[in-house]
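Inverse folding, one chain.
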């Protein structure tokens, strides 16, 4: 452990702040500034040692930034003759972790590494003869029917990241706050084991579920039984190895965490599936400056009915469905204006395809690309906004527009349903603040918009409902106080009890013991 003075909060980040802009990084930056009375130490997990530029001016209450390089761990000392004993001690913990391990498995692995942690690195843990022998044993134990070459490179990548987490320095802190599970969560769990201080986890998207999707779709992983005609795959393959490993990191993170936070209720089903205890689950949504957006004046007279898609012109936003919906809606509302408010340069090819679709449908005077704009200048001129995205978490634009009294028609992704229609436990129910539609369905999108734009009463009701819901549930001032109270409450917790270490007997222990007894007899 470090001799540095403890920070109030050690925030553990994987692949985000301060080197990536937007999304989770913006949330982190806002948290650091909002809780300026707290000192923070950041641990940034990055893939490699490539030089990166800060995308944010880090606030003064950040007292330190450490880096952990998942695929480029330090060399460490040269291999030693006794390294095979180290790997024998580690193997039960490693095997458990790649089978969906638990906090005690991580603790067992940590205990095996602890006596020589300062001297270890890639020379001994990845490149030594003892490491090679360990890989051969684990291959025979875990996936003997897989391609050894594919197993070797997968295992090396997995172990490089796991060892990077296990060898990293842990800054002293009163509280460890990880912004995902995965490797960041595993490091937070290790900090809990080492310091016995509490852990919070805040998940925007559900890390393990995102990795499951990526791994299932990966073309660089081949199933063991790819040529089989069986209807059900029976044997474990490399995909299972990766998925089980990330599931294990979730188990460890959730077990270590005092509270398990996410942005909306739908995410909690996925957290429960990965072992999150029910009594630790908590929803704290992202919020917006309600007063700022509520003060935007409405411009109702002297303009045509106007809708807007607010976002980047990229495939995940499915702008083409929005364009097709605008074409259908124009048949009922001939003077319709359908704006696209957002940057167009991120995917030039897709932007070009969208503009070609506008031209092909004869919508040049209806669908207008305005580029990146200051939202405050436009919300007062809109009757509704549209999200046709195929994936979202908790899009703030729905809240910003809602505070200005602008309802939303959105696809059924992320927290959109909860924000627009209200959560199941909303009391009293405020009503619909717009509509939810299926993915890639321009007909449903156009119909929902027509229901709003052709009925002033329905539009007014939706405007009132969404504005009041944002005021009650998503006002950033209220949510900032919730986190401030949670930080104070969690930092005041006493040290946890040590994690119980159950060390299983090595395979064949009893057979060897009996053989020795017979020889002695």
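Residues assigned per position:
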């Amino acid at each position: 452990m470090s001799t540095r003075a403890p920070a109030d909060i050690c925030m553990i980040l994987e692949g985000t702040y301060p080197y990536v802009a937007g999304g989770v990084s913006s949330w982190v930056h806002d948290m650091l500034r909002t809780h300026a009375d707290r000192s923070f130490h950041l641990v940034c997990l990055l893939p490699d040692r490539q030089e990166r530029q800060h995308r944010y001016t880090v606030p003064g209450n950040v007292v330190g930034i450490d880096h952990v390089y998942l695929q480029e761990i330090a060399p460490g000392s040269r291999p030693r003759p006794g390294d095979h004993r180290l790997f024998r001690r580690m193997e039960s913990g490693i095997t458990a972790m790649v089978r969906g391990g638990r906090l005690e498995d991580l603790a067992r692995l940590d205990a095996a590494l602890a006596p020589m942690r300062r001297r270890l690195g890639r020379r001994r843990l990845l490149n030594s003869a003892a490491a090679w022998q360990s890989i051969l044993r684990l291959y025979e134990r875990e996936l003997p029917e897989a391609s050894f070459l594919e197993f070797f490179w997968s295992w090396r990548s997995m172990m490089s990241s796991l060892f990077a987490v296990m060898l990293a320095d842990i800054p002293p802190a009163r509280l460890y706050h990880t912004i995902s599970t995965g490797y960041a969560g595993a490091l937070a769990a290790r900090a809990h084991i080492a310091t016995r201080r509490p852990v919070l986890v805040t998940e925007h998207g559900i890390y393990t579920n995102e990795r499951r999707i990526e791994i299932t779709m990966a073309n660089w992983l081949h199933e063991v039984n790819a040529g089989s005609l069986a209807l059900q795959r029976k044997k474990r393959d490399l995909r299972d190895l990766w998925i089980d490993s990330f599931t294990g990191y979730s188990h460890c993170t959730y077990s270590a965490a005092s509270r398990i936070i996410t942005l909306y209720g739908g995410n909690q089903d996925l957290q429960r599936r990965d072992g999150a205890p029910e009594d630790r689950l908590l929803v704290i949504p992202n919020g917006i400056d309600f007063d700022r957006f509520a003060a935007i004046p409405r411009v109702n007279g002297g303009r045509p009915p106007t809708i807007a898609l607010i976002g980047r012109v990229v495939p995940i936003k499915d702008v083409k469905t929005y364009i097709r919906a605008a074409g259908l809606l124009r048949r009922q509302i001939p003077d319709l204006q359908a704006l696209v408010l957002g940057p167009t340069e991120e995917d030039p090819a897709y932007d070009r395809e969208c503009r070609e679709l506008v031209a092909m449908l004869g919508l040049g005077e209806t669908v207008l690309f305005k580029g990146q704009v200051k939202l405050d200048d436009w919300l007062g001129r809109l009757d509704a906004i549209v999200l046709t995205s195929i994936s979202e978490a908790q899009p703030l634009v729905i809240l910003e527009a809602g505070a200005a009294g602008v309802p939303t028609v959105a696809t059924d992704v992320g927290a959109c349903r909860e924000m627009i229609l209200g959560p199941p436990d909303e009391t009293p129910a405020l009503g619909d603040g717009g509509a939810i539609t299926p993915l890639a369905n321009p007909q449903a999108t156009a119909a929902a918009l027509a229901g709003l734009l052709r009925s002033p009463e329905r539009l007014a009701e939706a405007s009132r409902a969404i504005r009041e819901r944002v005021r009650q549930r998503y006002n950033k001032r209220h949510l900032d106080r919730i986190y401030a109270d949670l930080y104070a409450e969690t930092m005041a917790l006493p040290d946890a009890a040590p994690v119980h270490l159950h060390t299983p007997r090595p395979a064949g222990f009893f057979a060897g013991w009996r053989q020795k007894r017979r020889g002695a007899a």
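The chain is about 45% helix and 15% strand. The chain has two domains: 1-75+92-120+164-287+475-521, 290-473.
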